[in-house]
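Box 3.1 A note on notation
Throughout this textbook, protein chains are presented in two layers. The first layer is the amino acid sequence; the second is a token string describing backbone geometry. Keep the layers aligned when reading.
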Amino acid sequence: MESAAPLTPDLQTGIRNNMARLYGPGLNLSFGQDASLIGGLRIQIGSDVYDGSVQGRLRSLQESFLVRIYEHLIAGIEAQSRRS
């Protein structure tokens, strides 16, 4: 588990308890810091990733902009070809 800033012991305990409830007892969860997350946290357990970081949200926003631009370009090309 990574966070942009240090987490209080109480918050770490709460996260451990919630993850143990989801994944069962005996889960070994380690905490680290990654300032590039800007804010929030990212939790990876096996192949499951819970990304609540600002960096993740910005990446998602960027991807949605790129999809919208692509769709707009394709629509313009299709409209142009229908006019030809």
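The helical segments are 9-23, 54-83. Residues 54-83 form the longest helix (30 residues).
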